[in-house]
Amino acid sequence: IRDRVWPVPDDFEFKFDEETMVAPSGPPAKASKDPNWQENHPKCPYCGKLSRPNVYQFGDQCFVENEYESNCWLNWYHAVKYILNTNSQASLVMIEIGVGI
Known about the structure:
Layout: H1 67-86
């Protein structure tokens, strides 16, 4: 079901190799009470297939827009644009963290 997005349960912890940042299959560091979160590679609660992160990748047909997050971004964008347009001493620096291979 492509229009469904769900959060990671609070009682779940992925197991991953800190050196390679790979999450191996098998048991997680801490399994959730939720039956879909018993393995390190969780399953979709609707279809039972392997789930995937909802991260937009180039030409990604499976990404599901989140209206709340989109509105938060737009509010931030317009606030920053206003500050930059009304304050000649203001500047903007953006640092992207954790997105890359």
